[in-house]
Fold each of these.
Amino acid sequence: MTVTTKSLRRWGAVHKWTSLICTLFMLLLCITGLPLIFHDEIDDLLHSSVKPAEAPAGTPPANLDHLLANALAQAPGKVPHFLIWDRDEPGAIWVSVGPTIDADPTNNRLIRMDTHSGAYLDSPDVTGRFTYIMLKLHTDMFAGLPGKLFLGFMGILFCVAIISGIVVYAPSMRKLRFGAYRAKRTRVVRWLDVHNLAGILLVAWTLVVGFTGVINTWADLVLKMWQFGQLAEMTAQYKDRPVPSKLTSLNGAVEVARHAVPGMTPSFVAFPGTLFSSKSHYAVFLHGDTPLTSRLLKPALIDAETGALTDSRDMPWYVSTLYISQPLHFGDYGGMPLKIVWALLDILTIFILVTGVYLWMRRRKAGVSQERAIANAAAIDSPALTS
Amino acid sequence: MVAHRSLTEIFAAPLVIAIVSTVGLISALVGDGWWDAVSWVALGLPVLLYLVFIWRRRPN
């Protein structure tokens, strides 16, 4: 056995095992991810929502303190955690409220408000929605952070499977033209061709979507890192101060932030005491206006007692990496045509997974060693497999 | 079947497609309008090629 054959067998083994372990979960991710590409459209179709009142261009937005008071009137006894401008619907602002300021925000209630009138629109319970169930299955399988990190690990295996797949693609194609599809052969040959063709065509996309998915599973950890790193640094002088008894104007805080970071638009406000801020600050997160900079948030910390700016810094590289990896995973950054392409690529990935499992099962049944079959392309022509 | 192919021959087309896909992945991040259109075409290419190769040699 030559050195090359030996090393190819090793790559074949890597491809087999990494694929086998992650395939079932990758199938789950591809299938739940497919409707998630179109989650906005599906939600619009399945659920009605109160439309914000028509506002002619140039209508000034409502005072945020007024809007917040209206929102809290709908949720007696609750405290605000976040105020979020709707990315897709400029007429709506969300207020996220919880029972206490340190309660887990994932169980928060969301109240939708009219940007221009400051009036209450609705407060949908999204947890029963189809898209919510798909999202939970896709991100953590209803198993919280451990589930998330587990899927992240499956994503790493998927990336290793792709890279080892590129290596074992070579011996498989030694005697075939690029794009070969031996249509008149048995199913195992045809599906091998489908597996090789779709696999090699999608290499860049599957690697990027796979790896950015892995990065997304670390979002909670990245947030913690930022909290104990940059945020703690920016608010060091406030460490021993008592929590402000009465908060300064929210509207004023957002105005101060807008002036401090010219050219950027507020994306959301984290109230004092939440995960995204210190106990003494409003953290106003602003975004830019190009497809790329609209994903990169910059916080401005406003003293919640005096209403003055404490500090505003660009996010550290690890947070920016997370923000940039989000659109690259979701495919929501190039309009509807890109979403459709994303869905088609997702379907082709399902083909790769299914044909891969089939090839493994057939070779197992035929008693052909997987490593040998991969290292020696001729093995696919062995009588055991072509019968 | 063709004669034994070298690694360069095997990986030339996949490399070009991977580069085009990468351009497509980045393009829509950079801008809107034409930038988006470049993404649609560049990332649609692998799908199109898949269909072409399979349909061209579909069993009768």
Amino acid sequence: MSEKTAAATVLFRIKRQDTPAAAPYWDEFRVPSRPFMNVVAALMEIQKNPVNTAGRRVAPVVWDCNCLEEVCGACAMIVNGRARQACSALVRDLAEPIVLEALSKFPVVRDLMVDRAVMFENLKKVKAWTAVDTTSDTAEAGPRVPPRVQALNYQLARCMTCGCCMEACPQVNRRSGFIGPAVLAQVKLFNSHPLGQPLAPERLEAIMGPGGIAECGKAQNCQKACPKQLPLTQVLADLGRQTSVRALTGWLRR
Amino acid sequence: MTRGPRLAVIGGGLAGSMAAVEAAQAGLTVDLFALGPAKRSHSAAAQGGINAALNTHDLGDSTGEHFDDTIYGGDFLANQTPVKNMCDAAPGIIHLFDRMGVPFNRTPEGVIDLRLLGGTKFPRVAFSGATTGQQLLYAADEQVRRHEAAGRVHRYEGWEFLSAAFDETGDGRFLGIVAQDLKTMEIRAFPCAAAVFGTGGPGLIFGQTTNSASNNGYASYALWRQGVKYGNPEFIQVHPTAIPGADKNRLISESVRGEGGRVWTWKDGQKWYFLEEWYPAYGNLVPRDIATRAIFKVCVDMGLGVDGEQCVYLDMTHMDPAEVARRLEGILDIYQLFTGQDPRRVPMRIFPAVHYSMGGLWVDYEQMTNIPGIFAAGELDYQYHGANRLGGNGMLSAIYGGMVAGRAAVRYLEGLSKVTAGGGGGAGGGGADQAGRAGSPTPVDGEGAGALAAAVRREQERDAAIARMDGTENAYLLRDELGALMNGNVTVVRYNDRLRTTLEKLGELKERYRHIGVTDSSGWSNQAVGYVRRLWGMLELSQAITLGALQRDESRGAHYKPEFPERDDANWLKTTIATYTPDGPKLSYEPVDLRFIRPRVRKYDVDKGASRNV
């Protein structure tokens, strides 16, 4: 720790890829260190002087970010082997060289930028919304919610769709098509909301087929990986139970 | 399922998303453009909450009080009719977002809880922990997704708006937009007779701010260059409480003070609660411009910053940790992460940072700019905050403005359809004339297609010209210089000589801009070329901001000149209008709508009620 604060620079080793089809390669950069510097600030430094440790001028590293305070979910990447938000990854807490890689469960766009469209598509599949009749003022408050219920819903509603849980989950891979923990948490959230409940059966149906809840291997990596500490293990267990009940009693509704 | 004309919505934050929902609900097909997934928009970063006079605790609040607080807080520069309408609509908006599933914090009885923010005596802020913006944005985005699943919204996420296209050889009507796919770099035209913009503020001009990386202001610049008027550019909000950082300054929400946090510094060996001493009526909950100036005075003029540094304490160590966790979750972790200290045990060190632009594109009361068919809403417009925005009104104005814009765009397009369907004679002379100038719902006839193609070519040429730049200047370093220049001279305290120097230096930066070397030559997902394009917009918008500040010889809200310390209604109770010319911005002024509340002296050492004279 102490020698790192004394050092004027930090070494970054970054896995790069010029296009989705191109082969990946590695580049190393030395970045001037600043107190409480995060990985995003280091990438910004590279933009100002895109010269690698071999002394070669290269294209600046491409990555995704927006809010820089861990609330938008854009800058998720693999930092020293762990999927996390680059904005909340402080250089002083990381061993050198700091290794940056794109999330591996999504198609790489370029360098550290990936395409997470599949997560947004899946939010559509599970109808992650309340079906309000109109945006007009109905002169009526929504239903009352006990603070305890609000606290649980708020926890689930903080999911940033960043994809860290998908990265950590062994069941998310090219063969399984597993919808993943993040989207399942939204099923739980909207099924427990009074105005979300009319669509609850459809949401359960949507996660009962291939790629659904049954693909969960109960590795429980997702909860550890979640930067917002969503209670994903509990969510997956609850949904597993609900879908089992629905599968058993489904004939009653026919 | 989908019929009728298409509407383009540019911007996926609260304003754009709500405009899209309104239009889709009315049966239009919406093309929604955003720099990235709408869910990652800057609205997500709003923390404290959203104002609405729900008066849950029966403490005497009303939409009228909300209206008066907003006008008074904005130092009487905002047009009063739209502000009144917004405040009247606010309770309904909270109920709507409640129905949309936002987990607002609750009282023990289960109703929506309210808290205090600055510039009012009433708890008026509905909130969801300390990530209210995230929660409101998600709810809006979910409704967009619902309409998307039904085929009424088509998302173009990862596309950037470049310019509007007009029928230049004909009547000048708006024909559509030109946008770029930031992955493939393809530049394309999207025909539409109306577009709603909700692309946010230009915060990045000021370097390290509380803003997100996407708040580059390019869309507002591009529209301004094409003839949209820009209102009150000089009014920039500097938030009193942020933590400085290398990549950005992180906001510490006003809600910390709303929940009881106190601001102090050491003076003569004692804790000095200077806001409470100077402003006994409002204490720590004075509006942002007042608190920011006080902190500047303490740190810069009096040299009383903590440990001689540019910072003061924001203290919540006396507060109940359980309540803090329930009501301010999110803020504390961020502070702890970036400073290594636990704000529950050690007072936070904070300093002001650029946060919000009150100024923006000029719009009428239907959110339409001076170019028919082009609407604007959210931080992008100039409409609701006058000379200073109150905490809790930012998300409200984004949602309200977006909804008004969406509905107005629907009516506008319906009007065009009727005129077109009615054919030449019968539709009513005035209407037909207006529509003839304005546009038609299906604008892509032969000449229109030609104009759209020409607009695409212009942007392709601009793109190619930037890609060829091979000078020695680095665009990112130039932006740092711009940020330091603007932050140092055109924020909290403004002097005319420094503003003049700033204008000169902006000229120099524009000259050096021509010597930029573009660092990336790739034709795929090239972030460098877009950055250089946006930097030019920042430089030109900076000129409008600085010139507006230079001209306005008074102090009003966030605009403060020690040489002219008083508000001067006789000469300056008027809206600045900046018009683009290739030789720099031209300023003109227009009167403020004062039809409800007579201007009175704004002060926060005594109760506002005492000086009220509606």
